[in-house]
Design brief:
The protein has 360 residues and is of the alpha/beta class. It has 13 helices and twelve strands. It has a twelve-stranded mixed β-sheet with strand order 1-4-3-2-5-12-11-6-7-10-8-9, sandwiched between helices. It is globular.
């Protein structure tokens, strides 16, 4: 089912550079475009040995189509890339339509992921950078996963994992790190899913990640409350008083090397990160990481500050995995206007994380 397009291979020196595999994502979306734009940067190939998993024909078609667009950002020529061509059933391939996510595009993006995971677990790659997929297209193709993170965890045999969003400010160089305690679940289920046991597991993952991947051993971590004003002493919700505050006090005793702030009212927790991001002097008092209790509590501020720069990082896996923090953008696929900043950031962060692990 898989083959490397030999005509597209470029031989790189066999140095100790991180070996990364990039999945094309949903081929009907902007994944092919942002990958070609990101890999046009010559510094990328200098930092890592990278291969693209997807469709050679589709990459070539994307390249040819976009080259007709005026004022287009530079593109990597697929003939200059190492492309692992995943052969799809002809009927499936014929149903892939640019700009329209469907069962065929979902089957293709799932096949790309399966290949990348298998080869990385086999030791051929140090990390995976994943292009954006459409969960609805996966479901249409018969794959019922909440997202790529859950597939990665299942294939890796991992029970405890997390979604960490990382972004470096272009204004100050400060790094924002936000971990979600719960991810792709309905809002009405959040309070039931959150438990002291779950938060301990997430905090374990975050501390391990900060130490192993970022070299931060005595971290300052801000932890959000669940309710408005963190419950207002039980007047606006009881979770903080019932278990969140006692849990946090116990964690402070168990982890004296850390500074654990919280539970911080969700509406004010993001003031200092915002100031640190945009250049206020309180950058010195910002935290090394932020633990948000549910999806939108963490991702609204992340995307407000760093929509074009944030990187989704899966922690708890046996290898590095990063992904741009945006979707397939079917509505602009093939128009040449997709921003590759987040894809480039995802590749660069993967290089940094792999390099850091190699030092440990």
């Amino acid at each position: 089912m898989y083959q490397i397009n030999q005509s597209s291979l470029v031989k790189f020196p066999q140095e100790n550079r991180p070996r990364l595999v990039l999945t094309l994502g949903d081929p009907a979306g902007i994944g092919p475009e942002v990958i070609l734009k990101a890999l046009a940067k010559p510094e990328i190939s200098k930092k890592c040995d990278v291969k693209v998993v997807g469709s050679w024909d589709l990459l070539r078609q994307t390249y040819d189509k976009l080259n007709l667009t005026e004022n287009l950002a530079p593109l990597a020529n697929p003939a200059q890339l190492s492309v692992i061509d995943v052969q799809l059933d002809r009927e499936i391939e014929s149903q892939i339509l640019l700009g329209t996510g469907n069962a065929a595009s979902g089957a293709a993006s799932f096949a790309y992921m399966e290949y990348a995971i298998a080869k990385t677990l086999a030791g051929e790659f140090d990390g995976i950078v994943t292009g954006p997929i459409a969960k609805s297209a996966w479901k249409a193709a018969g794959y019922n996963y909440p997202g790529q993170t859950e597939l990665l965890a299942q294939k890796s045999g991992v029970d405890h994992f997390g979604m960490l969003f990382v972004a470096r400010s272009p204004h100050t160089g400060w790094t924002l790190r936000t971990l979600l305690a719960t991810t792709h679940i309905p809002l009405r289920q959040v309070a039931d899913v959150l438990t002291p046991q779950l938060l301990t597991k997430k905090l374990d993952l975050l501390v391990e990640c900060l130490e192993r991947d970022f070299g931060i051993e005595q971290a300052r971590i801000a932890i959000a409350g669940l309710n408005p004003h963190s419950g207002e002493q039980g007047q606006l919700g009881h979770e903080e008083q019932d278990w969140l505050i006692p849990w946090l006090e116990q964690e402070r005793q168990n982890r004296p090397q850390l500074v654990l702030d919280g539970p911080i009212p969700p509406d004010t927790m993001w003031v200092k990160p915002g100031q640190a991001w945009y250049g206020n002097s309180v950058i010195q008092n910002s935290s090394d990481a932020y633990l948000a209790l549910y999806h939108d509590q963490g991702l609204i501020p992340v995307k407000l500050m760093a929509f074009d720069r944030a990187v989704n990082t899966s922690i708890g896996l046996p290898f590095v995995r990063t992904s741009p923090d945006h979707g397939t953008a079917f509505d602009i696929a093939g128009k040449g206007i997709a921003d590759a900043t987040s894809m480039k950031a995802a590749i660069e962060l993967a290089v940094e994380l792999v390099s850091q692990r190699l030092l440990v």
